[in-house]
Hints:
The complex is a heterodimer. Chain A is α/β, with parallel strands linked by helices. Chain A folds into two domains: 1-61 and 137-215, P-loop containing nucleotide triphosphate hydrolases (Rossmann fold, 3-Layer(aba) Sandwich); 72-136, no CATH class. In chain A, 38% of the residues lie in helices and 17% in strands. Chain A has helices at residues 26-34, 55-60, 77-87, 93-105, 121-133, 151-164, 177-183, 207-214; strands spanning 15-19, 45-46, 49-50, 62-65, 139-143, 169-174, 186-191, 194-200. In chain A, helix 3 crosses helix 4 and helix 3 (77-87) packs parallel to helix 5. The relative contact order of chain A is 0.21. In chain B, 83% of the residues lie in helices and 0% in strands. Chain B has helices at 2-16, 19-43, 49-67, 69-76, 79-85, 90-112, 114-122, 127-153, 158-173, 175-179, 186-191, 195-203, 209-232. Chain B has 13 helices and no strands. The mean pLDDT of chain B is 92. Classes of the chains: A alpha/beta, B mainly alpha. Chain A binds chain B through residues 31, 34-38, 56-57, 59-60, 62, 64, 66-68, 70-75, 83-84, 86-89, 91, 131, and chain B through 2-3, 6-7, 9-10, 13-14, 17-18, 77-79, 81-89, 233.
Amino acid sequence: MALAALDLEINRGEVFGLLGPNGSGKTTFIRLLSGYLLPTAGRLEICGSDAVEQSLQARRKIGYVPEAAPVYGFMRVREFLAFMARLRGMEGRAVHDAVDRVIAALALEAVADKPARTLSRGYRQRTAIAQALVHDPELLILDEPVNGLDPRQIIEIRGLIRDLAGRHTVLMSSHVLGEVARTADRVGILLDGRLRGVRAMADTPDLEAWFLSLA
Amino acid sequence: MKLLGVLLRKELLATFGSPVGYTVAAVFLLVLGYTFSLTLFATKVANLIYIFHQMYVLTILLVPALTMRAFAEERRNDTLELLLTAPVGEVWIVLAKFLAVYGLVLAMYCGAMVYVGVLEAYGAPDWGPIASGSLALVCHAALIVAIGLLMSSLTENQVVAAALTLGASLMLWFADSVAYLLPPPFDVVVLNLSLIGHFRPMVTGSVFVSDIGYFVSGTLLALFLTTRRLVER
Lengths: 215, 233
């Protein structure tokens, strides 16, 4: 079993950081929340909808950015964002308005009409986040959002995640302590598929020491 | 249905945005034109039975190149995660991919219909076998495309997907040969699985509900199994 004894409630509007080493079960947990995997036991609720029994309803409330930040390379960025908006049930003028909104919010103007396969790693990550935000979801799930980015891009994505707090609930996973410390309001530590502790960052002056005490 | 339209548009963009579809269509029409000319000059008979058999074989050989990327590529590029976490039923994803590839194969077939015009212009073809043969090809293509999608859903390697599709199609093609080696009642069961056994009567002008039922039920079964595969992740 990849995950066990995981009892966690994420508050509306907060940025929750899920911290753990590689192979600790972070991606499995995130894939369960996103609906990509189905739990073999237990219960998952997304903003009031059961993730298994009301799967489609739950998925409408989620924006999900997988670790690889996948995009359809044969589409232009604007076209890709419009496709993802329509896939989430948006229609007509609302699609164009939503696409324009996320292009502006993520500073994608320079690449909006370029094929997605030509994007740099940084723009690709921003495009992946834009597709997750295009339908204005209640919960945004980010799996290792700064993996493979250069320092400037990391700072930009970190700022972006902080900006999203309040309007969206954000769950992000990372294996980098400093990243979670700088971005999250609360942090949970996942080790060997078990949630070993949850704390507010404000009450955790030394995240590294706390992590080592649990590991 | 709106979601099907959204997904189908994306699949058509992917299909016609890649050189694979054009290459397969070009090879298909080139080989068929060559065979048609040879057959017509050699036999001087105004029928398309031989051409329909050629199209049957070419469909088995070429369709794996069209279906192999359907799910395998999405899985390899992680875009399948985007599709499966969107609020859309898996059946629509499968149907959109099926319709896109099937549409391309039917378009290739339409290109081959120019031969009907040639026969009509210079001879007096029997329209019955041409109509039933066309129906046989339409049914045959649906089954091979559906098998291709099923195989593509099983792996993230496109070459493996193509090889599995080709293998499964050839096994069905030669099922009647295997049937002769089996004792009753297994021989009848295996004989009824034969692809060519259900194709041949239609292409020569005999349309049986059982033959159409074979292709339709086989197609639906393969699409159902593909959907289940996606649901099971």
